[in-house]
Write a structure and sequence with these properties.
Length: 293
């Protein structure tokens, strides 16, 4: 094992089993005696991605402060000035306020500044600005990880997030989204990344299973996001059937992206939802990979 950290990327469509796969990979690496760090989707401490973070320009930040006069004591420890932007961890602030019993229904006026900050979420920004900020963070992560050892395991932020913001949200051309992922891939090349893509043969079945297994709020929000903007909206797609059509297009684009990557890519079929067989396949894959590394 070299001193440079290595990176394993877990990707796949919703309901394919990415979260389970990432957990299996992390557990297996630990059992192999490797130092493994797992970052799942939505981790507020993710070293290469953002979740619940606003990205203001200097002018936007000044206008927001003037309009809402947010409490300095709450934002000062959650604000970073970086790459010409003001980055505010609004979701972490919200969680801290909730933990302190603040932010209830009777404090809408006090919460207006926080709600306004959310509109500048990095994944709500125009695509070019989103890509600039995300690429900058991946670059910083790669530079830091090169001085470390062990293995990082990332769930779904490498392909899924650029495809979601590029294709799903903005209806960007395939080439633009592919270039976004290619830029991230070039940044992490020194970490000798490996990608595991979790596949489902029957996309319609796997998505309907996810809808049945998860809270209604998740499925309603997911389908609204997929059909109410960008790719889905332009094609007049609606409801569950329309969402599946968007997912089919997303899968086609992700297959193109996988074909352009200059890293080991392993497609793992999880259609049987057999955890024992899935774990065995992953264990064999990881042992072969690290024996060759």
């Amino acid at each position: 094992m070299t001193m440079t950290a290595q990176l394993i990327l877990i990707e796949g469509l919703p309901g394919s089993g990415k979260t389970t796969t990432a957990a299996f990979v992390h557990e297996t690496l630990t059992q192999m005696g490797l130092s493994s760090r797992l970052y799942a989707e939505g981790d507020l401490n993710h070293p290469a991605d953002y979740d619940g973070v606003s990205g203001f320009t200097e002018a936007e930040y000044a206008a927001w402060k003037k309009a809402y006069n947010p409490p300095e004591e709450e934002i000062e420890d959650r604000l970073v000035r970086q790459d010409g932007h003001y980055l505010l961890e609004y979701r972490r602030i919200r969680e801290e306020r909730a933990g302190a019993g603040e932010g209830g229904s009777g404090q809408e006026a006090e919460n207006a500044w926080l709600q306004a900050a959310q509109k500048y979420d990095i994944y709500e920004l125009p695509l070019a600005r989103n890509r600039e900020l995300i690429a900058a963070k991946w670059r910083r992560f790669a530079e830091t990880a090169r001085r470390e050892s062990g293995v990082y395991v990332f769930e779904c932020c490498f392909i899924q997030n650029p495809v979601t913001v590029g294709m799903i949200k903005y209806g960007a051309a395939d080439a633009e989204t592919q270039a976004y992922v290619a830029e991230l891939a070039s940044l992490i090349e020194p970490l000798k990344p490996m990608l595991i893509y979790v596949e489902q043969e029957d996309l319609n079945f796997s998505f309907r299973k996810a809808v049945a297994d998860r809270p209604r709020e998740w499925s309603e929000g997911f389908m609204a996001y997929y059909t109410g903007q960008g790719y889905g909206l332009r094609r007049g797609l609606r409801g569950l059937e329309g969402t599946v059509q968007v997912l089919e297009a997303r899968r086609a684009l992700e297959r193109k992206i996988l074909g352009q990557l200059n890293m080991p890519v392993h497609t793992v079929n999880n259609s049987a939802y057999d955890p024992h067989a899935h774990r065995e396949e992953l264990t064999g894959l990881l042992r072969r990979h690290f024996r060759q590394a």
